[in-house]
Design goal:
Structural class: alpha+beta
Helix content: 40-55%
Strand content: 5-15%
Radius of gyration: 51 Å
Distance between the termini: 55 Å
Largest sheet: 6 strands, mixed
CATH class of the largest domain: Alpha Beta
Number of domains: 3
Number of strands: 13
CATH topology of the largest domain: Beta-Lactamase
Amino acid sequence: MKWRPSLRLILLLINLLVMLLPLGGIAWLRLYESALVRQTESELLAQGAVVAAAYKAAWLRMPGEPALADLPAVFGPIGEWQPRQPRLDLAVDPIQPRPDDAQPTPWRAEPRAAAVGAEFSPVLQDVRRTTLAGIRVLDHQGIVVASTAGDFGGQLTQPEVLRALRGETVSLLRERHSQSPPPVSGSLSRATGIRVFVALPVIHQNHVLGAVLLARTPASIWDTIQGKRWPLVYASLALLALVLTLSWLTTRTIARPIAELGAQAQRAARGESGAVQALRHAGTREVAELSTALAAMAQTLEARADYIRRFAAHVSHEFKTPLTSIRGAVELLRDHADALAPDERARFQDMIAADTARLDRLVRRLLELARADVTRPGHQRSDALAVLRDSAARAESLGSVIQTQFPDAVAWVPMPAEELETVFANLLDNARLHAPGYVLRLAASIEGSALLLSFEDTGPGISAANAARIFEPFFTTARGSGSTGLGLAIIRALLTAHGGDISLRASDAGAVFLVRLPLKL
């Protein structure tokens, strides 16, 4: 047998996938990495603001009057408060190439900036040991006056520096290339391939004194995981336990009831009667509905099988009696035809003819019942009252006494006229056979969306014992008169197939059959 996954396995995999989807989304959108980058950006902004403020204060303390007119001006108003929120995002912001190193320049740094830078360089080196950030202080020309990298006197012309010298705070991402060997797993500064660059202007009275450029590699996800490994392990175990619990619950409410239905179906396939029953613990509404539907289907199939067995037994019995009579008569005529008197031969021949006619009627009735059982409603319709009037007229021509009470209306029903005529003819023949010489009253009325027909005779009626069986195939109290016991069964099958029904109403005298047919406009 071809291997197929079980429902339990599928549910478990679905729950695991649902659990991993958020992690996949975080990895795809790089949400956590972006958070680490923004954290680094925020730290660099804070450090840069402190360095810029200290540089500005030291620049203003230098002896002599500062020549602000020689410095680039910042256009536009500058407010008292200038907060700068981190905004870098790995999913949106491009990663720029690695910047060029400071280039030699024939220009000299502005004297006040050079003097302040000489004081700041040792301080920046001390700061770097704690913050791990590379820091450069530039004058208004972009010349490095203080640096943790030792590139004093060089000029930087990268875009973020030029924008900062125009009074703009800039943050961006650049590639990181290192000549050092690959870092160990616990490294905090060299485990990622990008660096965060932040450039801040140093502004006094709407003039740019210089700029501060900071750069640092953000912490990697692996570094963070290493630091939070035990809480993450506990959280993963809790999530796994939750997934297993959800899988167990879904298995109990879905897979287990379905497995019980499968076991019932296997018992039914082995021929066990009553094996399929509605589940007591279905789990979900859909499974309960499926269980109820399967139980109803199984009961219908079992009832149909019982009907077929009983039907076959009745057919065998009905055919056996006339066939036995015919066989016996044929054998007598064949073996003793010369010894029999002419009237005796005629009597045996009449018996053969009568039994043959009975078999013919039985076969025709069986074919009618078979057609009635497989009849399906179509789009045809007919006037039931007109068909009933025609059927009553034919019955009167055969000697029946019929009284009618019909409304002056047209009653369209979803049945072909031929099938309606079969229903009415069988009912009228049944009354003529069981209540000969009595009056048959036919009445019709329209109630809502249904047509009600009453067939009432003034005959001897039907006993209570027989009333419970009159719609069973082959049941008849007039077998000697040629009845096959299939007429009422054919009537019920035809009416049921088109949404109608027939019933026997209790009556003090005679028999009363009520036929209900849906109206079709």
